[in-house]
Specification:
single chain, mainly alpha
Amino acid sequence: MDIALLFKIAGVGFLIAVAHQILSKSGRDEQALLLSLTGIVLVLLVLVGKIGDLFSEIRSVFGL
């Protein structure tokens, strides 16, 4: 696993957490919730791409 991927996910999580706290404290709870959901979807999209690469690598190793 690439360490840069972990840093990327951690960075997105940190930025989303800070922005969520700022929006929550200012009374914009709906926007904070949407921001959190957007962060989750963004991380899942990155992970789906990496999982696709993993399956491609497995296919090439086993010749499927």
